[in-house]
Amino acid sequence: MLAGDQGVRVTPETAMKTSIWFACARVVAETVASLPLHLYRRIDDERVERARNLPLYRVLSKRPNSWQTRYEWVEGMCLHLGFYGSAYNLKVPGAAGSVTELHPLHPSGMEVRQEDDNSLTYLYRAPGSGRQVIYRDDQIMHVRWLSFDGVNGAVPVDLGKDAISLARSLEQYASTFYRNNAQPGVVLHTEQALPREVREQLREQWNNRHRGPSRAGEVAVLSNGLKVDTVSATNQESQLAELWMQALLAVCRIWKMPPHMVQELGRATWGNLASEMVSFEKFTIQPWLRRIEGAIERDIIGDDDELYAEFLVEGLLRSDITTRYQAYEIAVRNRWMTPDEVRQKENLGPMPEDETPPAPDAQPAAQPADVAPADQPADDQGDNPNGD
């Protein structure tokens, strides 16, 4: 729990209320959760298959526990990583010893200790009951964010406390500023000497009558020589938008987030959006996928070298039908995918045998010279060989 240079206490809870930090966390969590996650088995050096016959396959790809979908489970892990630096899951074994459920544990109640033999001990105090439970490292799946000691993930809101504090301070200031109709204040003055009680009464009456956006533009009626002067906004207040942009970019740098992904389109052009999307997938999302995949392989799959977990990044193309179909066309033309494999990815059944398309490089059959094209009738006026 830290305070930034702007004096705002920075905790995971206050970071959640900072719109730009929460927006970045939400983009990452929802993007990663939207990607399919599967368990694969290596058959040989060239072939792999989905290990559908294993209970773990269903746990990872569909139902990690009795109350969460796979999407919700992955999304929750990413949010824990983005605010606390670690995500923990209790492994629930079945009768055969394999993992049949994964129960998320809130990172705010977890303490990790490394023993002399390098094994890890997890001391968990449930946020609700306060009851402490001690787990061995073979009972926990632990996903770490950046780690300086290899044991605990660094807490992102601690590393980004100054950027969060600045953004939070600006949001609070802007809220107050615009709540007053973006008017910093007025001065009511008169040549008469007014007692303190009267001055306070005038101040309260003016605020009740004229403060707030819903009362903007109302006519003020003054009496007894009362005059009003508006205090103009200072340079600092007029630069609020510029300061907010600096805070936004500072948070985006921590998350490696393209600004347009959090609705900041001021510098976006059609030319750079495509390259930024590639950068987003490669430099922002890929590390999160590898962290989760690696934790699954280390903590759940273990020493089985034939099995591995993998997110399908092609899921990012689901909403871009043109790019997806172009990728399929290249794959089929170069013969590393078949039309039926493409149809399977689009949740379509195999193509009927009588409708099997030609090979990608096949040329249309040439028509005999004496056969008329199908869209033109034969020439009935030609020479009759019998001379009729």
What do you see in this structure?
- The strands form five sheets. This protein has a three-stranded antiparallel β-sheet. A three-stranded antiparallel β-sheet has the order 6-5-10.
- The longest helix has 32 residues, at 270-301.
- A hairpin with a 6-residue loop joins strand 8 (120-125) and strand 9 (132-136).
- It folds into three domains: 1-182 and 246-319, no CATH class; 185-231; 321-358, no CATH class.
- By secondary structure, it is an alpha+beta fold.
- The mean pLDDT is 81.
- The chain is built from twelve helices and 13 strands.
- It has helices at residues 12-16, 19-33, 55-61, 70-84, 156-159, 161-179, 196-210, 235-238, 240-255, 270-301, 321-333, 339-345, and strands at residues 2-3, 9-10, 37-42, 48-50, 86-93, 99-105, 110-114, 120-125, 132-136, 140-144, 186-189, 227-230, 307-311.
- Helix content is 39%, strand content 16%.
The separation of the N and C termini measures: 107 Å
Biggest β-sheet description: 3 strands, antiparallel
What is the oligomeric state here? single chain
- Unreliable spans: none
Task: Produce a short descriptive summary.
With 388 residues, the chain is an alpha+beta fold. It is built from twelve helices and 13 strands. The chain folds into three domains: 1-182 and 246-319, no CATH class; 185-231; 321-358, no CATH class.
